[in-house]
Every structure is written in structure tokens, then in C-alpha cells.
């Protein structure tokens, strides 16, 4: 049963703040969950529910979303400034129907004249910069460490161990997925031949009476798929994508003979002062390669209420694409320069949905993060998808040296599932009481992908831009607040789940799930809530 009180309160609060005054918003109480009636969702959500769950309100829908519409109701009538959000990622499709009107344009650069009009070293950087040039694929960082041949490197043996494990795993996954794909295709063909039709239902399978062991086995497999609401076509497509992923990992990421940077960019990746390289094509050489960054950009700021595609989190935003992340591991040098580029060109929020286990030049990235703090820029970082405690097993970029945080303008985000129960935390999400700050929606997130398409993706890569969007919302409507204040507001205004213990990892993974207190998984012990964030921002902005 849906609780009526929150609905009434939301309507009342919208009326109360219609005049848009900060004092009116600031007078609203922060929403809490303790003692509240939270609707229970017993069935698996349909695709329409999944498309909107990240923005929903937990008290009125049962989904642990960010209460976005309540936040906008509270903001009605209030003026906002435009905020530039840097998307340091794989590239962004700047011509996408739901993004093209909110892409940042460099006001100091004359398009396509071949001149560095703004004298920043990057020619014709009209919509951002591409530090990868024509590179799509890259080695993983531990492969680059091995290729250096420096056995005295303290990370060398760990890199070798990682390489051996990952190479064997990738080869095993290719073989395993190929076998499953072949088996499903054969089973599907057998059933089609028996029934005399290409499409069939679970009911059709139940009616088949056969003594053929081969056909019986095919029926068992197809029953399993159909009873889980998964089509044969979708399964075969996912297996094909999985095989392709691991084949490319073997061909590029884990291939010690693959060195695209030497022949394409021709810069020195170990020289931070060799900084003017790449090109102005912020999409990248292929549309497919920009999928990740386009999805991230859409989560943050896809045009709202235009009856196209999706609604992003934030209005009054301009997305600045900085292409830095290949299919493989990003270089520390590219990350450091990308952050500085975004900062120097006016970004006030920067999303970094990437990460890696090894970071040979982490000091360059640390310096860039410190520069962001000096320039009042908030960095929103994805915690990673390895189901690990990042207090113990570090992932980069991070904001601490020797366990001590060196900047107060970086916020690291774990991922939530759409189930408000023991499965609240995404099975893949990293966690850490010290090094993860907050959790937000990151499972089955529907957003923009290249060539005017939309897709569901999951990852802390999707959770971070939800937070970046709310950060941009705060900076647009309460511009006096500093980046460090915005970080604190996001953490303090989150809601504390009434689900006290959750499963971490294990669901569908090799390791078993652990039952842990939700409060132990992040510094705040909370989940993102845009409505509360707006109220607290109003209080702090007085």
C-alpha cells in the first residue's frame, strides 16, 4: 500500500515554495525514512518502471531513487545559472538528439579555422578535446608495466600475477560463452523444427511430449530462459557481446605486442609536460567507442521535458566532453591533463566514471585533483565494479595518500540496485567506509547512447553521474556554495536506509555474497537524495 502522507506533503510543499524564495525552501524539513511506510514491490519491474526508477521517490514508489521531481517542485520559480559539467570519458556523441542542445561550446574558439584562437594549446577545441586522438583500444595498465621490463618496479610482480590470472580468465570466458551460445542456438533450432514455427512460448514448451533426450534437454534450457522473462534472441545477443568483449580484451588489452600510442599519438606518456596532442573530435573515431561517455552525459543532463528519449538529472547544464578513456586502461597523463583542461575552461563539476588498479604516475593525477580544489571544482568519481573493499584494495583515481584524504572536493560513489531489500547494493559495486562517500542508483540505468539511441547499462559509472547531476543542480540554483560545501551537502542530505544489512557481491559472481551493515559501506552511510540536497543547500546558502 502506498503511503498517502508523503504525497500530500509533496503537493503542499510544491505550493509553499512556488514563489521560489530560498527561505521557503530552507524552511522545509529534510526527509527521513525511519518509521515511514515504504511501499513493497513484489514483482520484477517492467521496462517502463526501470526507465524511471533512478529519479523516483522511495516513499511513494518503493524504488530507492533520488526523489528528483520533489526537488524540482521545491525549486519552482527559482532562477538558476548555467553550470558546465566536464565528462572525462570515452567520448560523447555531441549530435545526439537528446544532447546536442546542451553541449558546451568554447566561446573563445572560432570553429574549424585551424587556429588556436584562445591560445590554450588546443586548436579548434570548439566542444572539448580528445586526448586519445584516433585510439579506441589500449593496453591495461598492468600490461604496460610488464612491457616496460622494469623488474625492479615494486608493482611488477603484482602486475605479472594479475596478467596471468586475467589472461587465463579471458580465454576461459571466450570458450565458456561460445559453448553456451552454441548450445542455446542448437536447442532453439530443435524446438523450432519440432513445433514448426520460429516463435514459441513457455506454454508451447509445456505441451511438448517427447521421448527424445536431446529435445528434452533443449526444452529444459528454453524453459529456464522464458520463465525468467528472457528471450532467446536477447540471450544470444548478450553472449555474442560477451564473446566479443573478451576476444578484444585478449587482442588489445592483454596483448603485450599492441602499442597504438607509439604510432598514433606519438607523444611521450611519461612526460607530463608533453601536453599538446590529440584532436578536437570529442566523439572519437567510431560512434560505438563513445557509448560509455554518451550514456554518462545523458544521465547528467539529457534535455528535460522535450518528449524525446529521457530526462537527465540537471537542467541549466552544458556538457563538456573530454575524451580520455579508451577500451583498456586510461593513462595517468591523459587523466591529469583532461582534468586540467576541464577546470581551465570553466567546468564546475567533473564526472570521472573510470578507474584502474595500477597507477604509475598517480602524483600527476593527485596534483590535478588539488588544482580542482584550488579552482573550486567538484570531482564526482565512480567507486568501481570489482566488488572489493577499496579501503583495502585501492583503485585509482583516489583522493588519499597513505590513508589520509588530501582534497575535500572529490566525492566517490557506489552503486545501488532498484530493490529496496537485502539486495539494495549492486552486486558489482566497490565499497569502503573511508574511500567511498555515498551510494546512488547504478543498476539498469536507461540513458542516451550514440546515433540517437538509448540503452540500459549498469555500473558505478552510472551511479556517479546521478550524483554529478545533483551537484550541478545545486551549483546552478545555489551558486554561492563552494565545491567542498556541495560535497558535504550531498553526503549529509542523503537518506539512511531502513534496510540495515545488505548483501555485498556474490549474486552471479564466483565469490559468495557477504552480509554487511549498509552503514559500513561508505563514509556517509547514506543514499543520494536530490530533494534533501536542495533543502540543505538552501539552508547553507542563506
TrEMBL record:
Q: Where is the active site?
A: 89, 292, 461
- Family, per the entry? Belongs to the peptidase S8 family.
Q: Which residues form a coiled coil?
A: 153-180
Identify the keywords attached in UniProt to this record, alphabetized: Coiled coil, Hydrolase, Protease, Serine protease, Signal
Recorded protein name is Peptidase S8
Give the signal peptide, or none: 1-18
BP-aspect Gene Ontology terms = proteolysis
Q: Where is the Peptidase S8/S53 domain?
A: 82-493
Native source species = Capnocytophaga gingivalis
**Molecular functions (GO terms):** serine-type endopeptidase activity
Amino acid at each position: 500500500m502506498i503511503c498517502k502522507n508523503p504525497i500530500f506533503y509533496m503537493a503542499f510543499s510544491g505550493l509553499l515554495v512556488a514563489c521560489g524564495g530560498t527561505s521557503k525552501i530552507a524552511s522545509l524539513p529534510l526527509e527521513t525514512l525511519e518509521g515511514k511506510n515504504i511501499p513493497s514491490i513484489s514483482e520484477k519491474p517492467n521496462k517502463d518502471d526501470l526507465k524511471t526508477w533512478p529519479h523516483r521517490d522511495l516513499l511513494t514508489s518503493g524504488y530507492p531513487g533520488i526523489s528528483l521531481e520533489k526537488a524540482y517542485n521545491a525549486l519552482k520559480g527559482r532562477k538558476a545559472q548555467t553550470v558546465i559539467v566536464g565528462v572525462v570519458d570515452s567520448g560523447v556523441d555531441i549530435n545526439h538528439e537528446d544532447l546536442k542542445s546542451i553541449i558546451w561550446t568554447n566561446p573563445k574558439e572560432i570553429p574549424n579555422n585551424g587556429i588556436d584562437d584562445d591560445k590554450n594549446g588546443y586548436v579548434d577545441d570548439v566542444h572539448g578535446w580528445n586526448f586519445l586522438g584516433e585510439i579506441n583500444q589500449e593496453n591495461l595498465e598492468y600490461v604496460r608495466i610488464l612491457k616496460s621490463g622494469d623488474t625492479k618496479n615494486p608493482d611488477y610482480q603484482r602486475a605479472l600475477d594479475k596478467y596471468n590470472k586475467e589472461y587465463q580468465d579471458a580465454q576461459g570466458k571466450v570458450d565458456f560463452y561460445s559453448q553456451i551460445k552454441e548450445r542455446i542456438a542448437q536447442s532453439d533450432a530443435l524446438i523450432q523444427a519440432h513445433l514448426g514455427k520460429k516463435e514459441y512460448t513457455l506454454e508451447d514448451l509445456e505441451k511438448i511430449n517427447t521421448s527424445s533426450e536431446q529435445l528434452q534437454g533443449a526444452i529444459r534450457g528454453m524453459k529456464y530462459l522464458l520463465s525468467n522473462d528472457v528471450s532467446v534472441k536477447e540471450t544470444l545477443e548478450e553472449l555474442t557481446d560477451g564473446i566479443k568483449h573478451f576476444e578484444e580484451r585478449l587482442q588489445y588489452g592483454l596483448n603485450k605486442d599492441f602499442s597504438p600510442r607509439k604510432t598514433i599519438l606519438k607523444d611521450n606518456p611519461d612526460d607530463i609536460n608533453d601536453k599538446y596532442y590529440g584532436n578536437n573530435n570529442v566523439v572519437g573515431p567510431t560512434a560505438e567507442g563513445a557509448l560509455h561517455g554518451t550514456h554518462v552525459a545523458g544521465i547528467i543532463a539529457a534535455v528535460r521535458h522535450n518528449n524525446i528519449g529521457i530526462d537527465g538529472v540537471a537542467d541549466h547544464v552544458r556538457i563538456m566532453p573530454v575524451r580520455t578513456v579508451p577500451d583498456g586502461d586510461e593513462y595517468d597523463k591523459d587523466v591529469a591533463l583532461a582534468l586540467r583542461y576541464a577546470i581551465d575552461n570553466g567546468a564546475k563539476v567533473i564526472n570521472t566514471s573510470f578507474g584502474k588498479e595500477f597507477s604509475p604516475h598517480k602524483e600527476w593525477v593527485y596534483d590535478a585533483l588539488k588544482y580542482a580544489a584550488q579552482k573550486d571544482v567538484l570531482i564526482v568519481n565512480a567507486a568501481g565494479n570489482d566488488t572489493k573493499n577499496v579501503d583495502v584494495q585501492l583503485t585509482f583515481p583516489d583522493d588519499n595518500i597513505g590513508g589520509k584524504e588530501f582534497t575535500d572536493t572529490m566525492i566517490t560513489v557506489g552503486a545501488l540496485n532498484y530493490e529496496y531489500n537485502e539486495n539494495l547494493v549492486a552486486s558489482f559495486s566497490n565499497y569502503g567506509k573511508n574511500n567511498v562517500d555515498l551510494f546512488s542508483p547504478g543498476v539498469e540505468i536507461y540513458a542516451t547512447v550514440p546515433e540517437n539511441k538509448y540503452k540500459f547499462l549498469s555500473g558505478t559509472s552510472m551511479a556517479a553521474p546521478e550524483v554529478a547531476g545533483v551537484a550541478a543542480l545545486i551549483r546552478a540554483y545555489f551558486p554561492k556554495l563552494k565545491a567542498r560545501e556541495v560535497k558535504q551537502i550531498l553526503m549529509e542530505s542523503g537518506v539512511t536506509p531502513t534496510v540495515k544489512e545488505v548483501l555485498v557481491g556474490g549474486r552471479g559472481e564466483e565469490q559468495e555474497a557477504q552480509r554487511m551493515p549498509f552503514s559500513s559501506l561508505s563514509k556517509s552511510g547514506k543514499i543520494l537524495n536530490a530533494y534533501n540536497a536542495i533543502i540543505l543547500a538552501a539552508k547553507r546558502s542563506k
